[in-house]
Amino acid sequence: MPLTHDAILQTLSKILPPGQERDLVSLGMIRDIQLEDDRVTIGIELPTPEESIRARLQADIEGAIRSEAGTDIPVETVFTTKAPPSTPAGDAPPNPLPGVKHVIAVGAGKGGVGKSTVSTFLATGLARLGARVGLLDGDIYGPSMSTMLGLDEIQATANGNVLDPFEVHGIKSMTIAKLVDPEKAMIWRGPMAHKAFSQLVLQTDWGELDYLIVDLPPGTGDVPLSLAQLLPLTGSVVVCTPQRVAIDDARRAVRMFQQLNVNVLGVVENMSWFVGDDGKEYDIFGRGGAEQMAAGMSIPFLGAIPIHMNMRVNADAGTPLANFEINDEITGKLEQACRNLAEQVSISAMQDPGRPTLTISGSPPPSS
Ligand code: ADP
């Protein structure tokens, strides 16, 4: 049967973009269908420029149209990106950081699972992939970014009230550790914690960023609530180790984000396995626990990272880019987790192109 314009439209109405429950046609993404000289060109408008989403759609569309046509007809897809609305939806207040496209919180149910390590590799990894990235050390109780990013010898500077971010390892960064006496215990009562955190976020000159990664304090305390109130978040990442006791806490962190109406973009399993001198893999903490938890809670799994001594060494030395040079397997795992996060961000942007500011529902979760 010869291919017709209607048949192409019918075919496209069966294709769902990644992560979507509706098809391309009902989402209003088809801009143009041209059928000339046995060649099809489809114009598609997406709310995201994400390459991996375009590549998947291109493959799905080509396959479906060729199967409808019964021949290997050339199928070209021309993608354009829909600009997000300049004003937030509904009654939402204006975004205080309009130059930042996506704010992503990184949380964990408990301390020591590698939340700061993961925040750092996500930030530097996304920058390695070509994005403009900021990393905020929002762990105001136990900031570790000065060490992990090697900022100890760098002087903080400001322009009036606005702090200059530290531009290191291809990213912009800020941490409270550079603004207070590092020897002092950081005791912040609720309102002070909110103030300190909001100054760090809002009074740093982030400029134009694709992603601002915010490393939160562990647990379900005040800072995630402050962040959710201050900024329109694209979503959050939950970091955990695979053993049962850590998973239970991670599940609470997921629930906290959900209670704050923050989309959980995915889970990263850290310290998933260890390769011994004998070359064997040891699943010290029971590899796969976080992936199972993510599946059970219908949350994307972004990837698993092994324990490697050099990751600890690089954190202590403030050389995060060296994590991408430990060995090919680790480089691949880190890069894949960054790509998976970028893809989830794009999927979330497609579901919510206006990124409305959060509404906080219910009472804040209890402090940990
Ligand atoms: P959190 O932010 O959850 O408290 P950190 O990222 O500070 O955890 O990590 C705690 C310690 O574990 C740090 O010394 C860090 O270098 C180390 N670490 C974290 N992840 C790994 C890993 N995959 N391999 C080796 N060491 C790691």
What would you say this structure looks like, in words?
By secondary structure, the chain is an alpha/beta fold. The protein folds into two domains: 5-11 and 22-82 and 353-362, GMP Synthetase, Chain A, domain 3, CATH 3.30.300; 100-350, 3-Layer(aba) Sandwich (Rossmann fold). 34% of the residues lie in helices and 20% in strands. The chain has ten helices and 15 strands. It has helices at residues 5-12, 51-69, 115-128, 145-148, 190-202, 222-230, 244-259, 289-296, 309-317, 328-351, and strands at 30-36, 39-46, 75-81, 100-108, 133-137, 158-159, 162-163, 166-168, 171-175, 209-215, 235-240, 264-269, 274-275, 281-282, 301-304. Strand 6 (158-159) and strand 7 (162-163) form a beta hairpin. The structure holds adenosine-5'-diphosphate. Adenosine-5'-diphosphate is lined by residues 108, 111-117, 144, 218, 270-271, 305, 307-308, 311-312, 315.
SS-based structural class? alpha/beta
> How is the biggest beta sheet arranged?
8 strands, mixed
The coarse overall form would be globular
* Unreliable residue stretches: 355-368
Radius of gyration: 22 Å
CATH topology of the largest domain: Rossmann fold
CATH class of the largest domain: Alpha Beta
- Annotated CATH architecture of the largest domain: 3-Layer(aba) Sandwich
Largest sheet: spatial strand order: 8-9-5-10-4-11-12-15
Q: What is the assigned CATH homologous superfamily of the largest domain?
A: P-loop containing nucleotide triphosphate hydrolases
